[in-house]
Amino acid sequence: MLKPKKPEPCILTIKRVLQLTPHMIRIVFTSPDLESRTEGCEGANCKIFLPNKDQTQKELLDQIKNGPRPTIRTYTVRNFRKNALELDIDFVAHGDEGPASAFAINAKVGDFLAFKGPSEVKIKDYYADWYLLAADMSALPVASATLEKMPEDAMGIAVFEVQTKEDIQNIYAPDGIELNWLIQDDPHIASLAQETFIRAIKLPSGVIQTCIAGESGLIKSIRGFLTNETEILKEDIYISGYWKIGLIEDEHQAQKRLET
To answer: Does the pLDDT of residue 258 top 70, yes or no?
Structure first.
């Protein structure tokens, strides 16, 4: 059976901009093309294509098709409301040093970008006796979406690292998931706080599923711990490096390809 054809990139326009916390901006996008996307895609990756200054929607789509390659970044679908044709993406706000952050900080209703995806969700089935989640601010959207899809009786621990106490979000989690928040005020400095926390957990017996994502250096170390020092099955581990200190996304993705 042939796989269904993936949707072509489309234009999303901004419907609302919400300042969730000092360093997190939620942008609500809309487009009639969202009608073709599948419900339940929260937590899945997507690609955004950022327009150049004064570029029209048609010019951006033409550039995607014909080149030169526009600025592309990978993000997470935080919420999707198909009936309303609304899709939310959360952006970490870290000044104008990155194009996506700059886009979000300066975003206003009516602005646009191009969108491709989403991909498949990271965790499709929830069957574990116990769950372990960990994320920095870049991965909070996937961790939050994962928590929202868990069974009501799910048990486990989540550890999240944010820049300030004000960046702690009021996110949903089953009552049996213990939420822990760590503060790392400078994300450009490597932090071992999440790994130290995870290593100190007395993991229970039974099936354990993980949802862990964040800075690649830390992720590499946590992956080594999970695969070499615990009894968690490889197929039950979702762990991914979303970014790398000192590298832009293109450089980080190139490095990941070399390491696989």
So the answer is: no
